[in-house]
Amino acid sequence: MVDYQHSPVTVSGKRAVVIGGTSGIGQAIALGFAEEGADVIATSRSEEKVNETAAEIEDRGVETARVTCDVTDAGSLEAVRETAVDELGGVDVVVASQGAISRESVQDISDEDWDFVTDVALDGVRRVTQAFAPAMDEGGSIINISSLTARLSMANLPAYTAAKGGVEAFTRASAKELSPDIRVNAIAPGFVITPQNAETYAEGTEKRERIDERTPLGRVAEREEIVGAAIYLGSDASSFVTGEIVTIDGGFADSAF
Ligand SMILES: NC(=O)c1ccc[n+]([C@@H]2O[C@H](COP(=O)([O-])OP(=O)(O)OC[C@H]3O[C@@H](n4cnc5c(N)ncnc54)[C@H](O)[C@@H]3O)[C@@H](O)[C@H]2O)c1
Q1: Which of 19, 145, 161, when mutated, tests ligand 1's pocket best, judged by the most ligand atoms within 8 Å of its CB?
Q2: Which candidate, 145, 164, 161, places its Cα nearest to that of 153?
Q3: What percent of the chain has pLDDT over 70?
Q4: What domains can you pick out in the chain, each with its CATH number?
């Protein structure tokens, strides 16, 4: 018998915090982690949504805590960290899934709209890392949610595109600095159906047909299809993966026609 053991792809027993974890992709990751046996705090600005998702997490038989946060306020992220340390005993995995978008052209976007998007989507990621890294032990994993738009431009999303490009560069920069104790990676989803955008991507719309036609796998993603990569990056199975961007787009970015 060969003396052989690999780390399984599981976050069972880990303590996770998901910022922007009460809706969309972040909520799917929070619930997916809870299903796997991780203790999870899912947080956003809304107390009502925090309570709803916390109840869903508790239904899965794991620990959680109820706390709101705003990623534009470093102090509120520090409060989430303290809650995680007090209630869960520490933090092993942090997911930054908060989102902000503004649809203006390069020529028209105002300072105010640019700052709103980058404050949440890029500076927010920096603040999440700064708040949680000091509380994470050896083996910690930070997962930033980027977007395909960091690689492939779409019209009228200049601030979002720049922010996501920044998230990927910041992911590599912090992976370098926080090594070897903490790994930092990003997930770059393509088109993902969430309750918020279900109408925009509804079947039968021109937009949806164009995306389906252009995507090798022939469809958009369900938000649950992002969870497996987050579990992998949060688990010890990815112990030698850091500074990496995992694209989940049904093959969109790497296909021509
Ligand atoms: N849905 C897609 O097709 C898609 C594609 C690529 C990337 N993404 C990225 O995935 C992430 C999640 O997006 P989603 O589609 O699930 O959207 P969503 O709107 O459902 O989730 C965003 C979450 O961020 C929270 N949030 C917003 N501003 C915040 C703030 N200031 N402080 C704290 N929380 C805040 C919201 O309350 C919400 O819970 C985002 O980073 C988004 O850019 C989404």
Answers
A1: 145
A2: 161
A3: 100
A4: 15-248 (3.40.50.720)
